[in-house]
Amino acid sequence: MKILVTWVGHADLRALAVNADDKLREIIADEIGSLDSAPEGLGPVRTLVEEVSFDRILILSNYTEAVTKAFLDWLPGEAEEHQTNLDNPTDYGDIFRVVNQVLHELTNTLKGKDYDLSIHLSPGTPAMAAVWVLLGKTRYPATFYQSFKGDVWETEIPFELTLNMVSEIFSESDSRLQHLSALSPSEIPGFQDIVGSAKSIRLAVGRAQKAAIRDVPVLLLGESGTGKEMFARAIHAASHRKDQPFEVVNCAALPKTLLESELFGHEKGAFTGAEKQYKGAFERADGGILFLDEIGECDPETQVKLLRVLQPSMGSGPCNRTFRRLGGKENIAVNVRVLAATNQNLIEAIATGRFREDLFYRLAVISIRLPALRHRKSDVAKLAEQLLKQINADFAKYEPGFEDKIISSSAKSFLSSQAWPGNVRQLYNCLLQAAAMSDQAVLEPVDFQMALAETPTIGNQTADLIGCPLGDGFNVEDHLAEIQRQFLVRAMKEANGVKTKAASLLGLKNYQTLDAQLKRLNVDWEKA
Asked: What is the DSSP string of 318-356?
């Protein structure tokens, strides 16, 4: 079966108008503007279908149904219409979403059948042609046709040209990202659950929203507790796969043998305890997205198997995966987009041999770094309020008569002043503990001080304080005080609480100077 897919363009409708009655000609003029420049011949689409025989023709149209129907009636033979609603026919993202959906639905209906897909590049805008080339050379292999002034020919697109075209599409000027960074996440479809307006989180959301529409792997980077899984779910919600499965595998939570089974599945009897066939995450995620959390924890053997699955076979789409269940003898083919996340420095892990470089580049086609909470201090109060609403709702489910907690203004200031080494996860736990332990409806700083006192400090934050971004609530005096506080704590611990020795370690003249600084900065070194 030979199938043609094409846009209908202005030149096609001008050719139609030449052969139309006055009423239809007037309708076409209203649709596309002036009809002065009538094309030579029959227009690109009719020229092609009269020269080359196709068993099925699918016409994509961004014009009104009346004009589209008139064009289809004018074409020889039968053709199917697909009405679209592009706001901007030069926007790569909008065009990609429409064309990818059409081709995805078309090829799904043709599974198991022998067919040749043909794409007509001539009608439409240059951006439309670029998206045709991108998809026809990767996910939906196709033969390309062009037509001009009555001539028709097959077009070979060199691989190098495809790469240049992809590069051009992906390297749209950063002005679009800057535009997105001016929007809060709540204004971007799919990202409404991400709270915050700091520039760092807006920029991360902007990159994620841009990545969501392209079927390429994304690697989410950031400290523990920064919301990497939430971002992965938002990318899923903003993608054309939003109605398909979203599977999560925590690579750090399972030993090697169980991790392989969870990823690829197993056959009955594949190992001790395998009492029946089990479908793995790749199989369950067919058509959708698989999120590999804590990918840096994978052992070398699993990394090799992942690399093999993530390597598309020649001529197939970028998300086509082939694998076998453990103990299986038959290959299983699926279409799965992979997102991954880690809190590790994978470049350092590559240098020490703990992570494969080729797997890194397979996963990190697009990488997005999520900001630490201490780098978005202006978001802390709003985020705390949102998390507390969730906590109140959870408590109210199981405690009839539960009185909602709120955060006082002074408590919001206190929360915003903290470093939050555990990020959003630590903030949530602190709020949960304060809400559970306080008998008052209004949570005050003391409630959070008590909750934080039970949480050990994670790591040394001094280097991060020095390297943190300026702006977004940055105050040099506060940060210098925090750095000084860190050194005071270190000195007191190394001196086992002996102030004379601690003062000497810090180069202070006497222990009275040290004591004054400990009091001024409210340092409780024993709990730090």
From this structure: TTEEEE--BT--S-EEEE-EEEEEESS-HHHHHHTTSS-
Residue 178 corresponds to which amino acid? Q
Query: Is 278 exposed, middle or buried, given 0-12, 13-18 or 19+ CB atoms closer than 10 A?
Result: middle
Distance (Å, rounded) from C-alpha 407 to C-alpha 112? 60
Closest CA to 260 of 310, 332, 327: 327
Torsion angles phi and psi, residue 353, rounded to 5:
80, 10
Contact of 290 with 241, CB cutoff 8 Å: no
Q: What are phi and psi of 219, to 5 degrees?
A: -110, 120
Which residues contact residue 238 at a Cβ distance below 8 angstroms, ignoring those fewer than 6 apart? 188, 189, 190, 191, 208, 209, 212, 213
Cα 526 to Cα 488, 494, 495, distances in angstroms: 11, 11, 12
The average confidence (pLDDT) of the chain is 84
Pairwise CA distance, residues 94 & 176, whole Å? 14
**Residue listed under structure tokens 């090829």:** 107
Asked if 71 and 12 touch (Cβ cutoff 8 Å), the reply is yes
Question: What is the per-residue pLDDT for 181?
Answer: 55
pLDDT of residue 113: 85
Check: CB of residue 357 under 8 Å from CB of residue 364.
Answer: no
The SS3 of residue 368 is strand
Q: Using one digit for the tens of pLDDT, what is the confidence trace for 100-133?
A: 889 988 988 888 888 899 999 988 888 888 888 8
| DSSP β-ladder status, 151-155 and 289-293 | unpaired
Backbone dihedral angles phi then psi of residue 358, each to the nearest 5 degrees:
-65, -35
Whether 205 and 178 have beta carbons less than 8 Å apart is answered as no
Average pLDDT over residues 497-503: 87
CA distances from 199 to 171, 205, 209, 500 (A): 21, 10, 15, 45
The mean pLDDT value for 495-505 works out to 86
Per-residue pLDDT reduced to its tens digit, 343-369:
998 888 898 889 999 899 889 888 999
Q: How far apart are CA 192 and CA 198, in angstroms?
A: 15
* Cβ atoms within 10 Å of 195's Cβ, excluding its own: 19
Alpha carbon separation from 322 to 315, 472, 512 (Å, rounded): 13, 46, 70
Answer whether 441's CB lies under 8 Å from 404's CB: yes
Find out whether 354 and 341 touch, Cβ atoms under 8 Å: no
CA dihedral sign of residues 6, 8, 14, 20: positive
| Nearest to 266, CA basis, from 327, 332, 334, 330 | 327
Report in angstroms the alpha-carbon separations of 168 from 50, 95, 171, 363: 34, 15, 5, 21
CB 279 within 8 A of CB 323: no
Residue 470's contacts (CB-CB under 8 Å, 6 or more residues apart) are none
Residue 64: how many CA atoms within 13 Å on its side-chain side?
A: 10
Q: Output DSSP code: residue 37.
A: S
**Largest Cα–Cα separation, the chain:** 101
